[in-house]
Amino acid sequence: MQKADELNAIFWSAYTIDKPFSIFRRIRFNGNQWNFWDWGGTFLNIGGNLSLFTQFKNLWTLNIGGNYNAESTDNTKLRGGPAMYIPANTNFFMNVGSNSSRKLSADFFGNINQGAENSSRSINAGVELTAKPGQSFYISISPSISDRYNELQYVTRKTYGDEDRYILATINQQILRMSLRLNYNITPDLTIQYWGQPFLAAMDYSEYKMVTDPKADAFTDRFHTYTEDEISYNQDENRYYIDENTDGTSDYSFGNPDGNFDEFLSNLVVRWEYRPGSIIYVVWSQNRGYFDNTGEFSMSQNMSNLFSTNKPYDTFLVKFTYRFGLR
């Protein structure tokens, strides 16, 4: 559960045409509308969605639509602090899929999100390619990439005098991931399965700001962006120092949140059902991880760091089950 203290009222509707006509096999129109409250009665958000899904006579599919969320009240943005108004946002998405019964098939997805007041934006895209050269072999590869910008990324909470300071920043984030999945049925009782995923992420923070009035009507009145006289960076310590009253003495500080996080996860499973209901599993799992404070995305450099800097963490596991028959 990612979020608690929420009461949702959702209206969902659809109109479906199942009778084939023209180039269409079937079409479904969707309309949704939602309202969110917390259990204290505070109204949090109102939004809606319109979408269309269709399957063509050649068994290709298309799904397009858009979401809209009005300005909302976010109880969790400041991680235990006061609720904050978040600008409205609009999202458009599209999914296109080829005939999945073919030996080769592909699915493409993409979405674009834009926040009001230019407060946020994101672009996500990916594709899943699937090959089934025979009844006993299956392989799929699904790379995806996302680029995200947000002016209200939470950083930390600090104390100045007897007051709390909630620190936000603008984040530029790039994520690249790719999943590879293999299934091979050597016999009906003996199978090999593999899954692996490299994950590369870079987070670059800038324009640090403190929350001043989280529920101000104007977006820019909800925070104060630190000036050059108020913020300084110590490269040796990798920390930012804040001199809020500009008297030449630091009032509080926080670590530089910039970072590159790279990870590779994989699992190889051999499954043998040596008698009905009795199975032996042999598993090899590998985990590679790398982190640095650069915050600069470079696929070649990140991959090199991931596979050459740190040693992997390997796990080998054998699981044995035996089915007892009772008469």
Describe this structure in words.
By secondary structure, the chain is mainly beta. The chain folds into two domains: 1-70; 91-150 and 174-207 and 259-327, Porin, LamB type (Maltoporin, Chain A), CATH 2.40.170. Helix content is 3%, strand content 66%. It has one helix and 19 strands. It has one helix at residues 299-308, and strands at 7-17, 24-37, 43-56, 61-69, 72-74, 84-86, 89-97, 104-115, 120-134, 137-160, 163-187, 190-211, 223-225, 231-234, 239-242, 252-255, 259-275, 278-292, 313-320. Strands 1, 2, 3, 4, 7, 8, 9, 10, 11, 12, 13, 17, 18 and 19 form a 14-stranded antiparallel β-sheet that branches. Strands 14-15-16 form a three-stranded antiparallel β-sheet, with no helix packed on it. A two-stranded antiparallel ribbon has the order 5-6. The two termini are 44 Å apart.
